[in-house]
Amino acid sequence: MISDVFAPAEEEVDILFFEVGDIVYGTDASQVLRIDRSLAEDLSLPELGPLKRGHRALVFDAPEGEGHLKVDAIRGVRPVPIHHLRRLPPVVGAASYTVGVFLDDARPVMLIDLLETLMFKEGTEGNVAR
Known about the structure:
The protein has helices spanning 2-5, 114-121, and strands spanning 12-20, 23-28, 32-37, 56-62, 65-71, 73-81, 85-87, 98-104, 107-112. It contains 2 helices and 9 strands. It is 9% helix and 46% strand.
Protein backbone atom coordinates (compact mmCIF):
# COMPACT_ATOMS: atom_id res chain seq x y z
CA MET A 1 0.00 0.00 0.00
CA ILE A 2 2.79 2.43 0.87
CA SER A 3 4.60 1.45 -2.34
CA ASP A 4 1.51 2.58 -4.30
CA VAL A 5 1.78 6.05 -2.77
CA PHE A 6 5.45 6.37 -3.68
CA ALA A 7 5.22 4.65 -7.07
CA PRO A 8 6.48 6.93 -9.86
CA ALA A 9 3.72 8.51 -11.88
CA GLU A 10 3.34 7.26 -15.41
CA GLU A 11 4.83 9.68 -17.94
CA GLU A 12 2.11 11.57 -19.76
CA VAL A 13 1.82 14.26 -22.39
CA ASP A 14 -1.14 16.62 -22.84
CA ILE A 15 -2.73 16.15 -26.25
CA LEU A 16 -5.10 18.72 -27.74
CA PHE A 17 -7.71 16.99 -29.89
CA PHE A 18 -9.31 18.83 -32.81
CA GLU A 19 -11.42 18.10 -35.85
CA VAL A 20 -10.93 18.85 -39.52
CA GLY A 21 -14.07 17.73 -41.29
CA ASP A 22 -15.10 14.45 -39.69
CA ILE A 23 -11.57 13.42 -38.73
CA VAL A 24 -10.10 13.82 -35.24
CA TYR A 25 -6.43 14.78 -34.97
CA GLY A 26 -4.16 15.48 -32.03
CA THR A 27 -1.19 17.69 -31.29
CA ASP A 28 1.07 18.35 -28.33
CA ALA A 29 -0.94 20.88 -26.32
CA SER A 30 2.27 22.66 -25.28
CA GLN A 31 2.65 23.85 -28.90
CA VAL A 32 -0.69 25.70 -28.80
CA LEU A 33 -0.53 29.29 -27.57
CA ARG A 34 -4.28 29.85 -27.88
CA ILE A 35 -7.38 29.06 -29.88
CA ASP A 36 -8.69 31.95 -31.93
CA ARG A 37 -11.24 32.78 -34.62
CA SER A 38 -9.79 31.97 -38.00
CA LEU A 39 -9.16 34.50 -40.74
CA ALA A 40 -9.22 33.96 -44.49
CA GLU A 41 -5.41 34.03 -44.73
CA ASP A 42 -4.88 31.37 -42.03
CA LEU A 43 -3.31 28.08 -43.04
CA SER A 44 -5.56 25.25 -44.13
CA LEU A 45 -4.19 21.87 -45.12
CA PRO A 46 -6.36 20.06 -47.68
CA GLU A 47 -4.25 16.96 -46.93
CA LEU A 48 -5.95 16.77 -43.51
CA GLY A 49 -9.35 16.69 -45.20
CA PRO A 50 -11.92 19.27 -46.24
CA LEU A 51 -12.94 21.81 -43.62
CA LYS A 52 -16.65 22.00 -42.83
CA ARG A 53 -16.48 25.57 -41.55
CA GLY A 54 -12.95 26.30 -40.38
CA HIS A 55 -14.06 29.00 -37.95
CA ARG A 56 -11.33 28.22 -35.39
CA ALA A 57 -7.55 28.42 -35.57
CA LEU A 58 -4.86 26.79 -33.48
CA VAL A 59 -2.27 29.51 -32.83
CA PHE A 60 1.32 28.41 -32.29
CA ASP A 61 4.86 29.83 -32.18
CA ALA A 62 6.65 30.10 -35.50
CA PRO A 63 10.11 31.43 -36.37
CA GLU A 64 8.69 34.68 -37.75
CA GLY A 65 5.78 35.23 -35.36
CA GLU A 66 2.73 33.03 -35.00
CA GLY A 67 1.29 30.27 -37.14
CA HIS A 68 -2.47 29.79 -37.47
CA LEU A 69 -3.98 26.46 -38.56
CA LYS A 70 -7.69 26.41 -39.43
CA VAL A 71 -9.74 23.68 -37.77
CA ASP A 72 -13.45 22.94 -37.44
CA ALA A 73 -13.75 22.10 -33.76
CA ILE A 74 -11.74 21.66 -30.59
CA ARG A 75 -12.44 18.43 -28.74
CA GLY A 76 -10.39 19.27 -25.65
CA VAL A 77 -7.10 18.47 -23.95
CA ARG A 78 -6.38 15.17 -22.29
CA PRO A 79 -3.29 13.70 -20.63
CA VAL A 80 -2.17 10.62 -22.52
CA PRO A 81 0.31 8.01 -21.28
CA ILE A 82 3.47 8.06 -23.37
CA HIS A 83 3.20 4.32 -24.01
CA HIS A 84 -0.07 4.91 -25.93
CA LEU A 85 1.80 6.98 -28.53
CA ARG A 86 3.42 5.43 -31.59
CA ARG A 87 5.89 6.96 -34.05
CA LEU A 88 5.25 6.30 -37.73
CA PRO A 89 8.01 4.43 -39.52
CA PRO A 90 9.60 6.31 -42.46
CA VAL A 91 8.31 3.69 -44.91
CA VAL A 92 4.76 4.91 -44.30
CA GLY A 93 5.54 7.95 -46.46
CA ALA A 94 3.38 10.30 -44.36
CA ALA A 95 3.65 14.08 -44.59
CA SER A 96 6.47 15.70 -42.62
CA TYR A 97 4.00 17.18 -40.10
CA THR A 98 2.71 13.71 -39.18
CA VAL A 99 4.67 12.62 -36.12
CA GLY A 100 2.75 9.59 -34.94
CA VAL A 101 -0.45 7.97 -33.80
CA PHE A 102 -2.29 7.87 -30.50
CA LEU A 103 -4.06 4.60 -29.87
CA ASP A 104 -7.37 5.81 -28.41
CA ASP A 105 -9.00 2.48 -27.52
CA ALA A 106 -9.49 0.85 -30.93
CA ARG A 107 -9.39 4.12 -32.90
CA PRO A 108 -6.04 5.57 -34.02
CA VAL A 109 -5.70 9.38 -33.89
CA MET A 110 -3.08 10.96 -36.15
CA LEU A 111 -0.71 13.30 -34.27
CA ILE A 112 0.68 16.32 -36.07
CA ASP A 113 3.45 18.83 -35.37
CA LEU A 114 1.99 22.32 -35.84
CA LEU A 115 5.28 24.00 -36.74
CA GLU A 116 5.88 21.38 -39.42
CA THR A 117 2.55 22.30 -41.05
CA LEU A 118 4.08 25.69 -41.90
CA MET A 119 7.20 24.07 -43.29
CA PHE A 120 4.99 21.76 -45.36
CA LYS A 121 3.13 24.67 -46.94
CA GLU A 122 6.09 27.10 -46.95
CA GLY A 123 4.03 30.26 -46.91
CA THR A 124 1.54 29.41 -49.66
CA GLU A 125 -1.55 29.97 -47.49
CA GLY A 126 -0.27 30.47 -43.96
CA ASN A 127 -0.33 33.67 -42.01
CA VAL A 128 2.91 33.55 -40.10
CA ALA A 129 3.35 37.00 -38.59
CA ARG A 130 0.00 38.47 -37.72
